[in-house]
Amino acid sequence: MTDVIGTPILEAPVAQGAKDQHMVLNMGPQHPATHGVLRLVLEIDGEIVVRIYPEVGYLHTGIEKTCEAKFYQQVVPMTDRINYLDPLSNNLCYALAVEKLLDLQIPEKAQWLRVLLAELSRLNSHLIWLGTHAMDIGALTVFLYTFREREDILRLFEAVAGQRMMTSYIRIGGLAMEPPLDFLDRVQAFVRTFPEKIDEYANLLTGNPIFKGRLKGVGYLSGADAIALGVTGPPMRASGVDFDTRRDMPYSSYEKFQFQVPISTYGDCWARYEVRLIEMRESVKIIQQALDGMPEGPVKADAPKIVLPDREKMKTQMEALIHHFKIVTEGFEVPAGEVYQGIEAGHGQTGYYVVSDGTAKPYRVHMRYPSFATLQALETMCKGRMLADVVAVIGSIDIVLGEIDR
Amino acid sequence: MSAQDRFIGKGAVLAGIPEHPAIKAILAWNPQALSDACFDRSELTLTIVADEIRGAAATVQAAGYNFFEDMTAVDWFPSSPRFQLSYHILSHSLKERIRLRVLVDEQRSSVDSITQVWPSANYYEREVFDLFGLRFEEHPNLRRIMMPDEWVGHPLRKDYPVEGYR
Fold first, then answer.
1. Burial, A223: exposed, middle or buried (Cβ in 10 Å; 0-12, 13-18, 19+)?
2. DSSP state of B104
3. In this model, does residue B159 exceed pLDDT 50?
4. Of A193, A269, A288, B38, which is least packed with CB atoms within 10 Å of its CB?
5. Angle at B79 between CA B78 and CA B80, to 5 degrees
6. A72-405 in CATH: which number?
7. What residues of chain A, 335 to 374, have a C-beta less than 8 Å from chain B?
8. Chain A residue numbers touching B103 (CB-CB < 8 A)
9. How close is the nearest chain B Cα to the Cα of A381, in Å?
10. What CATH number does the domain containing B94 carry?
């Protein structure tokens, strides 16, 4: 079978995989434990998993293609919708990539606020992971607790951005606007109580014999396999690979913060649980440091042709009005070139590859999202194990289908 | 080398940062494989001859660039060569990233797969095959990943309309 330009369409290997002794089982795309629309075609021998063929693309919306038809600043809202659990990290990564192309200096306060918001976003992502992962295993209560704290974080997002999930708050050249006056106090109040909430989750889960039994020794991934299969973020660090972009290739003034990068060498689902739990505690420390040392100054770069002017200035200054009109109607031209910007998001290493041809629209925007690569390791982690462990492993690698399919 | 340095062209890069581990490894392996180079915005881009990409990938892997991070294509339609493949390779020990670039003619439309070097390239090559229509030789499972199997055309090509064919 070929398509119109003569490219052969290859058959799915599953078609020949159904042998007498092995059963082919379809899991998803509507299965509740697949965290969205992941479809797994499992080849099982009794209860033992022999092969897994993940089928993705059910959520493919062609965001990369759409970006090519938008101005640079119009791409920001699209980045929220890719990984909807960690929106500010997506905004941050895209903004950093375009700022690198523009060679734009960002004020210190904006950089620190970006760090603070990215860490809040990471907590948001980890809370959803913890709740849904525990729910998959059968511990339904934790979900209610984590969503209680997630609600607090979403209210903080609403306070700064006006939106709970699709924030679009980090813009090219800084932030969309000054945060409200009481914002830092509200974050402080949240940070003060949050560590005991983490203890609360740990009390519910760490000593729980069922939770332990379902996770310990399940879904083993060696460090060499993690690197070979492109696994990043907490699953990679749980396999003993000591690399964190925040510490090793710092961006947005992360080099000014002190924090530990948790590592485990066990490489199983339990190690991933422990690593993420410590990561949440470290995020709280980073947020506390950001609150303590928050510098003064503007939150937008001094680049009138790129950054939208303040509303007040537009009402009084002709220049500002002209710049606003120009940016909104024509966008701004970005020097030709190609850049890749990587950051450490909640799920792992996120990267934006932006190619500019010198016009106001990006020539190509490609997003590297951690879940897409991590999914390749699923078979290695599940092979030879019981079918029920697949659910535990999917929960432990924390995938978001929005970022796989884009 | 600092963030302000900018070297465009193979000669300038070789004169400017001759001690770079990736460049040294590639030159020691096969000087002909490196057709162009560029160091811009603190990012090193090495353009590799299309036939040599698998060897170049294995060479930089041996030189310490152990992690395959990302790979995608850019369609420069209507200019020729039409496609550019960009491989982003990260080094955990050197804490640095390089970009390998391969230019592919439209008539050629087939490149060696690097899944033998990094198995993680599997999905990325499938994605490029699906959305750009470039084929990868010796790929273990080259079929569409995003679009339905019976889809006609390759959406990320520049001659494919944004709103699709109606």
1. middle
2. E
3. yes
4. A193
5. 120
6. 1.10.645.10
7. 337-340, 342, 349, 351, 353, 355, 363-364, 366, 368, 372-373
8. none
9. 14
10. 3.30.460.80
Asked if residue B30 is part of any domain, the answer here is: yes
Range of the domain at B47: 7-114
| C-alpha angle B147-B101-B109 in degrees, rounded to nearest 5 | 50
Query: What are the domain boundaries of chain A?
Result: 72-405
pLDDT interval class at A15 (50, 70, 90): very low
CB within 8 Å of chain B, chain A residues 212-251 = 227-230, 241-243, 248-249
Whether B156 maps to a domain, the answer reads no
Write the residue in A7, A103, A405 that is nearest to B133 by C-beta.
Answer: A7
Report the alpha-carbon distance of residue A4 to residue A127 in Å, rounded.
47
Q: Classify residue B142: in a domain, yes or no.
A: no
A402 Cβ under 8 Å from any chain B Cβ: no
CB contact under 8 A, A227 and B67: yes
- pLDDT tens per residue across span A51-78: 888 888 888 888 999 999 999 989 999 9
Report how far residue B13's alpha carbon sits from residue A27's, in angstroms, rounded to the nearest whole number. 51
Query: Which residues of chain A lie closer than 8 angstroms to B120, CB-CB?
Result: 228-230, 373, 376
**Rounded-to-integer distance, Cα B43 and Cα B40, Å:** 5
The total domain count for chain B is: 1
Determine the average pLDDT of the residues in B111-136: 90
